[in-house]
Amino acid sequence: MSVSRRSVEDAPLNAFHRKLTVYSAGGPFLDGYVLSIIGVVMMQISGALQLSALWEGLIAASALIGVFLGGFLGGWFTDKYGRKVLYLVDLIAIIGFSVAQFWVESAWLLFVWRLLIGIAVGADYPIATSLLAEFLPRKQRGPLLAAMVLMWFAGAAIAYLVGEILLRVAGDDGWRWVLASAVVPGALFLIARSGTPESPRWLLSKGRRAEADAVIKKVYGPDYSIADLPEPSSDQHVSVWSLFHSGYGKRMAFVTLFWTCAIVPLFAIYAFAPKVLTALKLTGDWASYGSIAITFLFTLGCLFATKLINRMGRRKMLIHSFLWSGLALVLLGLNPDASPTTVLLLFGAYAVFIGGAQVLEYVYPNELFPTEIRASAVGLATSLSRIGAAVGTYLVPISLVSLGTANTMFAAALISLFGALISWWLAPETSQLDLQQAASLGNAPARTERSPAAPSTARKA
């Protein structure tokens, strides 16, 4: 009778895991902060720099275009050169480019700086999440990766709050201080990140067994070694080209499509929240405070999803998230002249329900691909999903003028409902699998909620 081996994935959560989760949260927090802050100051920037509708759309979409450029390149560099080095360089870049926005005097220069911010943000998605995923125990992997998205929304919520305060106290140049304010949280996270070790899974994939073993002993204790790490040997190579064909190509299509459907309405709402709410007849402080309230509800929705991710399962959560959030947008389209309270309630319902899809953006890509291409897969999904997000964000002000508020809401609803269909068709269930099993094509997870395959039958991906 065979005896199942011990695995670091079944080790208890320790102090290192908790610290790494906090350190890794710095990237998503800053991502949410710098990408959302533009929505707070877009009206002020438009007046100060005399922006046309064309430039408003370009500046709002510029960071998303940058994410498209930086996502795959950042993931590829992370898989090639390691998680640790890219981890620090990328955070420094986000801080520097954010500060540079303070001195802009033209629309094109603001576009350039936000494009560069987007490139750095795009690179951060695969860096932070792949490093964390490769250290976490099986039971905590889903909730703690989901918590990274929660930190994204926390960053966005703080951005709206800080932005509103600075605009009220800093005068005509308040928008400059708002855009540059990311330097404060960025510096704090940069200091906290020092001393983080390299991923032992990545080291093992490069044949650096002694270094991997030393990291495992340091993190899990002297009784553990690389023999307890469920990871294939370095002679079993999977190249980045695997993302474009065979089983991994299908997984890549699923991740890209659901991620796109999750963020297209969301980024459009974030970039133009005051304008959308104004179009829905919310004026003055209703629009400003409504934007802050909806942002905090996005955070609350992610918090609920994080708590339920293991109990509910990945697949079921994704389908229900798209379905109910899409229904909330349909109701907004049917009631464009509703009272401010009704509008805020429906927007709030969308914000809460879409949390399930949002938290899975970091979970699924890290679970469905092996170590050799994990960061590349996250980066490529980040890049491809931002094509739709950038186009959607660019079209929002045009759509509000040409199609009207109701039809704009209906278009956003169709995107969410399409996400539900894609999830029903392609979403697997991985909550009971270790990282190697989930990533193995020879052990493709079934659609049932509790379907762990025996390790003895798993192909080492």
From TrEMBL:
GO terms of molecular function: transmembrane transporter activity
Matching InterPro entries: MFS_dom (IPR020846), MFS_sugar_transport-like (IPR005828), MFS_trans_sf (IPR036259), Sugar_transporter_CS (IPR005829)
Major location category of this protein: membrane
A Pfam family matched in the record: Sugar_tr
Keyword field: Membrane, Transmembrane, Transmembrane helix, Transport
PROSITE patterns, per the entry: MFS (PS50850), SUGAR_TRANSPORT_2 (PS00217)
One GO cellular component term: membrane
Major facilitator superfamily (MFS) profile domain location: 20-431
Topology within the bilayer: Multi-pass membrane protein
Span list, region Disordered: 442-461
Bilayer-crossing regions: 20-45, 57-78, 85-104, 110-132, 144-162, 174-192, 252-274, 286-305, 317-336, 342-364, 376-396, 408-427
Subcellular location: Membrane
Record-stated family: Belongs to the major facilitator superfamily. Sugar transporter (TC 2.A.1.1) family.
Entries under PANTHER family matching the protein: SYNAPTIC VESICLE GLYCOPROTEIN 2
Protein name (record): Putative metabolite transport protein YaaU
Gene behind this protein: yaaU
